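Appendix C: a fully annotated inverse folding record. The material below is reproduced so that readers can follow the format used throughout the book. The structure is listed first as tokens, followed by the designed sequence.
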């Protein structure tokens, strides 16, 4: 239920149908919710991949983003995270769809006018990561007490370690301790500076990379042992998304990492020709990722997809009434599932 603010023309808070109203920095905002069942155009697919790639580094770095972009949006109705997304989406990506990736040397985690760190370097001693920068190029003593903000992003883990208030600029170095389990993971390191009173910040600088020789598992490699299951599942989703018309989401259950959840939102009447791709995905989930159970939800009216799932051995477990809001209406969904033991018997 929505609540009117200041009468009929004053905006509203809450939900009315497929609209949600709220206030953002003093402005009334109305957004439409629900997922579209229309097939994505090539341009929309490219934009979706750009957003996915940028968010992979920005989401786990949210605390640094809030500090680094705070002054860039001061006095506006924009927020720090959206500003960071906008900048990096325009400036830090490389390649074309479906092979868009980050250029880590161009990623910006902080934006401001203070002098940046110069002649930076990075070194590692187990879980101790040392950042170095040149202090001889500091223009004036007024910058000596600026505090360093250190960020390390682990691309293969989609995680970030950070130190928001570090050493003084004049010290020329600082140390960031990471989780001991991450010492062999690939790292991308960044540094920026902020005034002690927080009234000015610098642009961030890419300090360097560590462990670049670490090989990332690919979904198509059927013989190697999987060490990073979440990353492997993410790669599987990317591959399946390119072969499915409509939206596709594959993820591990937040309650148990041995359960995979798959949602395929394809339009009714579309030719279902993904049997081989879906079968391959199930095989890799069970055999390589050691998943014990795969759960899939599908539009209850999509007879072709339902037939395909039954052909692959999935069993219908539930019927959810008006479970999802798509294209201005509520749709019913069936839940299908299959266990690894059941898959093994059938294959």
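Designed amino acids, in order:
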């Amino acid at each position: 239920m929505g609540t009117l603010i200041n009468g009929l023309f004053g905006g509203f808070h809450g939900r009315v149908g497929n609209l949600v109203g709220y206030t953002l920095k003093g402005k009334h905002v109305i957004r439409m919710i629900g997922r579209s069942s229309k097939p994505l155009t090539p341009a929309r697919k490219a934009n979706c991949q750009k957003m996915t790639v940028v968010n992979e580094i920005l989401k786990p770095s949210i605390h640094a983003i809030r500090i680094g972009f705070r002054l860039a949006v001061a006095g506006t109705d924009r927020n720090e995270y959206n500003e960071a997304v906008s900048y990096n989406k325009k400036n830090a990506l490389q390649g074309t769809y479906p092979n868009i990736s980050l250029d880590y040397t161009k990623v910006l985690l902080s934006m401001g006018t203070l002098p940046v760190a110069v002649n930076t370097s990075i070194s590692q001693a187990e879980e101790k990561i040392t950042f170095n920068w040149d202090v001889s190029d500091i223009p004036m003593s007024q910058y000596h007490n600026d505090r360093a903000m250190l960020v390390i992003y682990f691309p293969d883990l989609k995680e970030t370690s950070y130190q928001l208030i570090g050493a003084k600029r004049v010290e020329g170095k600082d140390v960031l301790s990471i989780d001991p389990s991450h010492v062999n993971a690939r790292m991308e390191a960044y540094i920026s500076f902020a005034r002690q009173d927080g009234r000015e910040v610098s642009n961030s600088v890419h300090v360097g990379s560590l462990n670049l020789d670490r090989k990332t598992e690919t979904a198509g490699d059927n013989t190697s042992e999987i060490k990073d299951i979440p990353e492997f599942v993410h790669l599987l989703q990317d591959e399946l998304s390119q072969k499915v018309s409509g939206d596709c989401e594959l993820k591990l259950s937040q309650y148990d990492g041995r359960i995979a959840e798959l949602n395929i939102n394809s339009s009714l009447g579309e030719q279902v020709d993904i049997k081989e791709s879906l079968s391959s995905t199930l095989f890799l989930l069970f055999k390589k990722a050691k998943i014990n159970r795969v759960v899939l939800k599908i539009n209850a009216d999509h007879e072709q997809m339902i037939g395909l799932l039954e052909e692959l051995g999935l069993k219908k477990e539930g019927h959810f009434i008006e479970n999802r809001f798509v294209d201005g209406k509520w749709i019913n969904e069936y839940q299908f599932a299959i266990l690894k033991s059941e898959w093994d018997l059938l294959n």
